[in-house]
Amino acid sequence: MRLNYILSDLGIGLRRNMSMTIAVVVTIWVSLSLFGSALLAHEQVNLMKGNWYDKIQISVFLCTKDSGGRGCSGAEVTQEQKNRIQQVIASNPDTAPDGVFTETKAQAFDSFKKLYKDSPIVSTVTQDQMQESFRIRLKDPQRYQNLTSAVAGLPGVDTVQDLRQYLDPLFKALNWLQVGSYFGAGLLLVAALMQIANTIRLAAYARRREIGIMRLVGASNFYIQLPFLLEAVLAAIIGAAFACGTLWMIVYFMVMRQAQATFRVWQWVGASETFRVTLIMVLVGLVLAVIPTFLTTRKYLKV
């Protein structure tokens, strides 16, 4: 195999199809950038779920004389009622071992004062107005409904709160955003696949006489296909490099320098997740180059 001939043929092909090659590079750049962004969004949602769902607790607030819950009768919760509630919580199979914490009125009042330390409302609230509560950690945060339904309505229980009711709408919106990103990225990847196929088809058609002569003199299929394959791979690598650079810039300027500094409570994607996504982007770019090249040049290999 003469390497100088292959490289010469590659240069001729690039010069003949320069505009189409640039279009392929730009299409791969845009499509892989959106595809990588969708993958990173998926990583980000998983990090946020893992960060928050593991910390989710069910809070069972007990009755005071001013409570209006269905388990309240206009009086403070009795010790007997508290024992019964605690028994139901401890016997539930979804409750984690040592996962029950009791917050007294004094502890609730201290937390209230810290939370509203700069607000005048602190002076209008007394410790007796605070609610005792049980804070329960689950073995599996996804199985919160069983315990909630078992405790709600028991005598002495005012309300049962679960942070999932506030987080689930957020994660559903993020999941829909992911689906939209994957859909858009999929359309662009298909467009890139078709554009590479058209570019290789035009290049092979323009050199069909040369291909026929090479077949007659005994050149192998791979030897004939190699210049076209290198042309497609080169365009894919350049487009993937631009896409990876774009993704790294987005992560650095928008996530590492902005989001992490502003929203410290969240766990954000970083270098390891971005590196993993860029590897996938490069592999996808190479697949986009190799498959249509082999498929579109096969018809010209027959004499």
UniProtKB/TrEMBL annotation:
<keyword id="KW-1003">Cell membrane</keyword>
<dbReference type="InterPro" id="IPR047929">
    <property type="entry name" value="FtsX_actino"/>
</dbReference>
<feature type="transmembrane region" description="Helical">
    <location>
        <begin position="21"/>
        <end position="41"/>
    </location>
</feature>
<keyword id="KW-0131">Cell cycle</keyword>
<dbReference type="Pfam" id="PF02687">
    <property type="entry name" value="FtsX"/>
</dbReference>
<feature type="domain" description="ABC3 transporter permease C-terminal">
    <location>
        <begin position="183"/>
        <end position="302"/>
    </location>
</feature>
<comment type="function">
    <text>Part of the ABC transporter FtsEX involved in cellular division.</text>
</comment>
<feature type="domain" description="FtsX extracellular">
    <location>
        <begin position="56"/>
        <end position="160"/>
    </location>
</feature>
<keyword id="KW-0132">Cell division</keyword>
<comment type="subunit">
    <text>Forms a membrane-associated complex with FtsE.</text>
</comment>
<feature type="transmembrane region" description="Helical">
    <location>
        <begin position="226"/>
        <end position="255"/>
    </location>
</feature>
<dbReference type="InterPro" id="IPR003838">
    <property type="entry name" value="ABC3_permease_C"/>
</dbReference>
<keyword id="KW-1133">Transmembrane helix</keyword>
<dbReference type="InterPro" id="IPR040690">
    <property type="entry name" value="FtsX_ECD"/>
</dbReference>
<keyword id="KW-0812">Transmembrane</keyword>
<protein>
    <recommendedName>
        <fullName>Cell division protein FtsX</fullName>
    </recommendedName>
</protein>
<dbReference type="GO" id="GO:0051301">
    <property type="term" value="P:cell division"/>
</dbReference>
<dbReference type="Pfam" id="PF18075">
    <property type="entry name" value="FtsX_ECD"/>
</dbReference>
<keyword id="KW-0472">Membrane</keyword>
<feature type="transmembrane region" description="Helical">
    <location>
        <begin position="275"/>
        <end position="295"/>
    </location>
</feature>
<dbReference type="InterPro" id="IPR004513">
    <property type="entry name" value="FtsX"/>
</dbReference>
<feature type="transmembrane region" description="Helical">
    <location>
        <begin position="182"/>
        <end position="205"/>
    </location>
</feature>
<comment type="similarity">
    <text>Belongs to the ABC-4 integral membrane protein family. FtsX subfamily.</text>
</comment>
